[in-house]
């Protein structure tokens, strides 16, 4: 249960600045905001599973699992609402980048401190370690491709 709760808290902190990012991208135009919102929505699916599975495994209660996954997901629209009403005059591009970098550090710590030992326990060390590095490689490859195509389309 503790792993699910820690993951829920970490993802809540992760989702809040994502909401801010969607809000800021939307201020630049729907051309930026809508694709970012779709991309973030798609990656929120495995995040919900990451929260729900440990809670369901500990409690065998589907509603508890769904409730915590849903609550952690609500921090993203909360980020949008807070940005639009309260934070708009304070938000700078540097502040948002620093917030996102901090959240990335928190999520990396949670992954290595909580989730990796748990996966080693259930899947054996080699498989778990390979999966972590495969995930890092895929993420780096996707970011590289996005940067490549972003540079190509800036000229248009």
What features would you describe in this structure?
By secondary structure, the protein is an all-alpha fold. It is 92% helix and 0% strand.
* Coarse structural class: mainly alpha
Count of alpha/pi helices: 6
| Gyration radius, rounded | 17 Å
The average pLDDT is: 83
β-strand amount: under 5%
Summarize the model shown.
By secondary structure, the chain is mainly alpha-helical. It is 92% helix and 0% strand.
List the helices and strands and how they pair.
Elements: H1 2-28, H2 30-59, H3 62-73, H4 75-87, H5 93-123, H6 125-154
Helix pairs in contact: 1-2, 1-3, 1-4, 1-5, 2-3, 5-6
Task: List its traits.
about 0% strand; about 160 residues; about 90% helix
